[in-house]
Amino acid sequence: MKNLVILGGGYGGMRVLLRLLPNQLPEDVQITLIDKNPYHCLKTEYYALAAGTISDHHIRVSFPEHPRLHSIFGEVTSVDLENKQVLLNDHEPVQFDDLIIGLGCVDKYHNVPGADEFTYSIQSIDQSRETYQVLNNLKADATVGIVGAGLSGVELASELRESRKDLNIKLFDRSKHILSSFPERLSSYVEKWFTEHGVEIISEANITKVEPNIVYNHDQPFECDAIVWTAGIQPNKVVRDLPVEKDNQGRVVLTVQHFIPSHEDVFVVGDCASLPHAPSAQLAEAQAEQIVQVLLKKWNNEPLPESFPPFKLKGVLGSLGKKQGFGLVNDRPLMGRVPRLLKSGVLWMYKYHNG
């Protein structure tokens, strides 16, 4: 019996499971899923969990069940590519015939002293729970600093404003405009929303260090009762430690078929894979679809696909609380109620089809 091991039940790993199960998994193949949690987590909604506007239960989806799907709930410490085994804390090594690494990303602190020690995160469900406890236990009129005004920082700031109207929220961003990767018209719309709702934007920031309850911008101290870091990501440490070629973001360079060039049995999916798009749940799912095609060809002893059509990504949707939103769909900026409704609909459909 061949063993397909999937590291991480995120968006990529979950899509692989749902494509292979229940009917496409060959009789001579079993799947071993290794994840910290006994459920799939909707990472795109961690900002709302941290802000306290949704419950933990709303962002959990059960993994599928199948006689040849075995789950191990623990922490991966390393991958031994040469001996084809996965090493874990508190568990014996797991041998694999094929491996899919989908361990996701962690915060990138850009060598800012104190940032990893004195800030909170929304990169994992455990960290988001901790951030929720801190933010929602703050006294009235407390100050929250959010470092980074990309999609995560913007959604957290807006959701926190709805959750805690009494808080003073400062949003630090290194660019001239927040959401710098989006069209300026859209950035201006979001900035106006923040101005109207009393969120202070500190543009062209340069965070030089962080101390307990103090964030230094251009060496000027800003006292905060809590500081949340949303200023960049990097691959999981297990992936960073792999002795393989990486791009300048630390993501693993892959073949067209999504496996490591020197290890044709090891695939990388999602945030840790070097792909021609910014990491996203949508991208991880699209890549997972292609990995499943490769695996099925391989298991049937058929030639592997020599190429794939380019990924067709539908766009990006973001929320500004529960009533307003923004997005970029087919390169068209969307602002107001419609993108917020679209995002809610996409989330509902995902949970309906995957739960």
TrEMBL record:
Signal peptide: none annotated. Residues 3-283 form the FAD/NAD(P)-binding domain. Pfam families: Pyr_redox_2 (PF07992). Belongs to the NADH dehydrogenase family. Its cofactor is FAD. The lineage of its organism: Bacteria, Bacillati, Bacillota, Bacilli, Bacillales. One of its GO terms (molecular function) is oxidoreductase activity. InterPro entries: FAD/NAD-bd_sf (IPR036188), FAD/NAD-binding_dom (IPR023753), NADH-Q_oxidoreductase (IPR051169). Keywords: FAD, Flavoprotein, Oxidoreductase. This is NAD(P)/FAD-dependent oxidoreductase. Its EC number is 1.6.5.-. It comes from Metabacillus endolithicus.
